[in-house]
Amino acid sequence: MTIEDRGEAKVVTHALAKHTLTQLRSVETEQVAFRKGLVKLGRICGYEIIDGVMETAYETIQTPLTETTGERVVGMDDVVIINVLRAATPFVEGLLKAFPRARQGVISASRDESGGMDDAGEFDIEVDYVKLPEIHPEDTVIVADPMLATGSTMATVLEHVQEMGDPERLLVLAAVSAPEGLVRLNEQFPDVEILSVAIDDHLDEEGYIVPGLGDAGDRAFRTT
């Protein structure tokens, strides 16, 4: 298993995940390669969730030659993936390669940049669209967003998700996370598991993750 528990979050330490994140961080990585990199990273993280978080069970099967015992992942039909628009779209595309039968939800949530970051290090969040499936007690819910910065957006998203039901497991998946956002989510949502490929140094005065990877949405969709 290549997931390491750092206390404030679990970190994906798979070599290919770190390699892909390094490519995403580079300012020389252009739009198409960046978007494909997010897809790739989402797929890797999906496999890591299967290996490090989900359970397996043994069962007897019949091969063309004989009866044998095999192993299956439990709960693959009970996965819900929440796409935090828009930066998470390619990230979720990769996750769906690992969880092809997952139910999906979409939340369009973004910072209100006009007021800036307040003294508590938080932003007002604008929610433009919410479409979530019903959440069941046996579900594993994965809320995906490449960047966990102040935690303002993710906290708002988690509030909407929790209104839909109480799943067996609720995971936040990020490519890069800032310590400030991790502290907030752990305090506000102690039962939520956080999985990140990297925990970065800090937030700058505008609330961007340092060293980070820039604005993932702008880089993936070539917008400003």
UniProtKB/TrEMBL annotation:
Annotated transmembrane regions: none
- The broad enzyme category this protein falls into is transferase
Q: What is its EC number?
A: 2.4.2.9
Q: In which pathway does it act?
A: Pyrimidine metabolism; UMP biosynthesis via salvage pathway; UMP from uracil: step 1/1
Q: Where on this chain does GTP bind? A: K36, G37, L38, V39, K40
**A Pfam family:** UPRTase
Q: Which residues form the Phosphoribosyltransferase domain?
A: 11-223
Which residues of this UniProt protein bind uracil? I209, G214, D215, A216
Keywords recorded for this protein, A-Z: Allosteric enzyme, Glycosyltransferase, GTP-binding, Magnesium, Nucleotide-binding, Transferase
Question: Which InterPro entries does the UniProt entry name for this protein?
Answer: PRTase-like (IPR029057), PRTase_dom (IPR000836), Upp_A (IPR034331), UPRT (IPR005765), UPRTase/APRTase (IPR050054)
- What HAMAP family does the record tag this protein with? Upp_A
Entry similarity comment: Belongs to the UPRTase family.
Recorded protein name is Uracil phosphoribosyltransferase
